Hints:
two-stranded antiparallel ribbon; Butyryl-CoA Dehydrogenase, subunit A, domain 3; 66% helix; single chain; mainly alpha
Amino acid sequence: MDNLPRWSLTPIYDGIEGEAFTRDLADLNQVQSQLVQECTLLSGEPSRVTSAIALYEQMYDLFEELDAYTYASYSTDTRSKEALRGIAVMKEAGLGVHQAEVAFKNALASIKDVLPELISCSPELESYGYVLQELLDEQQHLMSPAEEALAADLDRSGADAWSRLQEAVSSSASALWDASTGERRTLVQLRSLASDPDRSVREKAYRLELQAWQEQEIPLAYALNGVKGTSITLNARRSYEDSLDRSIRQSRITKASLESLISVMEESLPMFRRYLKLKARLLGVDQTAFFDLFAPVGEISGTWSFHDAMEYVIHQFRSFSPSMASLAETAWKHSWIDTEPRSGKVGGAYCIGFPKTRESRVLCNFDGSFSSVFTLAHELGHAYHGHLLKDAPALLREYPMPLAETASIFAESIIFNNALPSADPKERITIIEQFLQDAAQVIVDILSRFYFEREVFSRRKQEELTPEDLSSIMREAQLATYGDGLDSELLHPYMWAVKAHYYRTDLAFYNFPYAFGMLFGLGLYDQYRREGPSFTKRYDELLVMTGRADVQNVAASAGIRVDDPDFWRSGMRVILEYIDQLEASVSW
């Protein structure tokens, strides 16, 4: 594999202690104070709502720019003292931002009776109708200003510290790989071997990974108990039914829509177990093990260079949208992408936006597999979504979790569907299996994570959970979803330690949005296949709309009803077609 590039953050700031960062931090503190003052006047002068909104958005542009920079610096080197100082600085700044946000929501509530008239009389405010109502709804779930301030202050040394512990452990823990040379592999490096074509390598990495997680299980169990306990307490004090209720509201969906989605995911499990049994036959084993889930099959099991992967992604994007291809090329040529797995760097992948600079950065751990090409496309899909919203004001730029996955899944669909026609029969097997591999993760594994988190929240209300409890709950969740599709003796009981989402109080149940996004994205791609190039403009408009409407209305703009199980079943039928094709294309 070629030298893997690292991203450049210098166009954003020259360092956490640099002049530009310090200046923006001072501006943030000043704007935050101005907003609090403006909010004290708003109840007596409702017409000041426009200036209050302007200050609110200025505050969030500054805060998100600074916060994204510190996290991007930290996530590529979790042991960096400068990055850790930056995290602490932003936590302090976040207290003022939270105070101003609470003041803004309370001020809006004080003029809620006249707000509809103000909106109807002002073209400038008309586009804010939905988000202002959403802020009013959130205000109904606030504690007193003093309690909110205390909760935000305690978060620094509480739940957020537990979250950073998980990231630090997962990015730095390692296992002895070769006793003869003393070579060690980090957990991130071990997980990247899950796609190695050699089954003995995959199994060795899997067993060493479990061993490494077991060595860290006590601090991580305490961390997870701390995060979930904090969520339960705060959500109760804020009058949410439970943590799932808050997640549903954050996701801008209805409970009926979620139940519809989950029921269809459960219906689909036999179909995915059939695929996993088919994969076992393709791999020449009696039963698929957890460490076989990402195993390559067919002829495209060689290593991709990062250069070739980017050329490929850009070429495929261009077939759908020149502007999408241009964004991906910009990300490559201007060093927006950090690809190299290394000690101190967090695992997985993400895309993060910088609203002032109007750029994004993409982190991944590129291993040269075809799967990592899909991951690259996925994260660049997020970057394209951010690109379309880069000129939108802060309040119209934030989209909910389910729609956050739409652009990324759609980007993967472009790669998949464009790769198939030119593939020879053996390559076609690999490409279809890669698609099914990802689909199984997004439906089956995500459902197991949903079951796991639901049970953890339920039991955490009554007791502290031991590492053995957490591993048992995870194992039961995997058995309930994977069933006889996987070897029950070779599951992954430590997935509760792997996934950073579990350790974020603001991301409870950050699992079902992936399934939502995949099936929604498949539905949109199916429309594109029917409509052709004319769909591209409508797709861009839909992504822009994600910042200013709920999921039902965004979906309705594409003719989709997300509370109708038949819509979700239509996406499952697409997946089933490829399971049938994979089985038919293999000579036994």
